[in-house]
Design brief:
InterPro entries: Acyl_CoA_acyltransferase, GNAT_dom, N-term/lysine_N-AcTrnsfr. It holds the Pfam family Acetyltransf_1. This protein is α+β, with helices and mostly antiparallel strands. The chain has one domain: Aminopeptidase, CATH 3.40.630. It has 6 helices and 14 strands. The chain has helices at residues 97-111, 119-140, 177-180, 206-221, 235-243, 254-260; strands spanning 22-23, 29-30, 34-37, 42-45, 50-52, 69-71, 81-85, 88-92, 146-153, 167-174, 189-197, 225-231, 247-251, 265-271. The protein has an 8-stranded mixed sheet, sandwiched between helices. Strand 3 (34-37) and strand 4 (42-45) form a beta hairpin. The longest helix has 22 residues, at 119-140. The two termini are 31 Å apart.
Length: 274
């Protein structure tokens, strides 16, 4: 089952963005520009010396309590994992050649369309294209406009061989007017794409954990809506997204599928817990 439509490395213009505040359990407001350092994998608020505490093992969209702020004046606190659940945890992709190649392989494996002849060769071309797109997005997107999240085992038995990446999802800040008309009062939204799980680890709730990590990220970055696309005939993917709280708000015009001959895609959205 292909769980998501894969959007190759398209980038809309990055508009200036001042994220909304993150509300703590005591309803205090912290404003200012948030940053997520790629090198140290931490989140910080520049205006006030506050750091985002690590999320709990489970995240419920009915409450934002899993994301909280901790005031500290000592050593900067490292932030690494957004979600840890069902034996899997999700973090930001390390910008290392080996890990980026693992991500490209899993996405290419999930979205490559087999051909009758020279399939291995075409797969290598497609994998190279995926890797090139990933590198482009990482190098040209501000860290609070795009992130590639990866899932790994909570207990990695193959530490000596490096981190075991088992799933991936891309999250991008977008403002497509055709989508925004379905999102009351929103100026931008988080677009979820490229969701893929290694074929050796499917049907183990990894995709669900990745979607929960996107929920947490929407709270951290201060976005009210998450949006994704799914093929109309991919009932497995649609069920996955529906269980995660997404609902269909629109779809490709029918003439695009009848005249052009491509599969019809549905736009699905959910409201963040923020």
């Amino acid at each position: 089952m292909i769980v998501s439509h894969f959007d190759m490395a398209h980038l809309l213009p990055c508009y200036p963005y001042v994220p909304k505040c993150v509300r703590t359990a005591s309803s205090q407001r912290y404003t200012g520009t948030k940053s997520w350092s790629i090198a140290s994998h931490r989140m910080s608020f520049k205006r006030k010396r506050s750091y985002l505490g690590c999320c709990c093992a489970s995240f419920s969209t009915s409450s934002a309590k899993e994301v909280f702020l901790v005031d500290i004046d000592d050593k900067e606190k490292q932030f690494e994992y957004l979600v840890s659940e069902n034996g899997w945890r999700v973090r930001r992709l390390f910008e290392e050649t080996d890990e980026m190649r693992k991500v490209a392989y899993i996405q290419a494996e999930a979205f490559h369309t087999p051909v009758a002849f020279f399939d291995d060769l075409f797969f290598e071309f497609f994998k190279a294209e995926v890797l090139s797109g990933l590198i482009y997005k990482l190098r040209n997107s501000p860290p609070n406009r795009y992130v590639c999240l990866v899932a790994e085992p909570t207990i990695d038995a193959s530490i000596s061989q490096g981190k075991l990446v088992v799933g991936i999802v891309d999250v991008t800040v977008l403002r497509d007017e055709a989508v925004l008309q379905h999102l009351p009062s929103a100026e931008e939204y988080l677009y979820v794409s490229g969701l893929a799980v290694s074929k050796h680890y499917r049907r183990r709730k990894i995709a669900s954990v990745l979607l929960k990590a996107c929920d947490v990220l929407s709270v951290v970055w201060g976005f009210e809506y998450l949006v994704l696309r799914a093929h109309e005939d991919d009932l497995g993917a649609r069920k996955l997204y529906s269980n995660a709280g997404y609902r269909v708000v629109s779809g490709d015009p029918h003439w695009m599928t009848s005249w052009i001959g491509r599969k019809r895609r549905l736009v699905m959205m959910k409201r963040s817990a923020s």
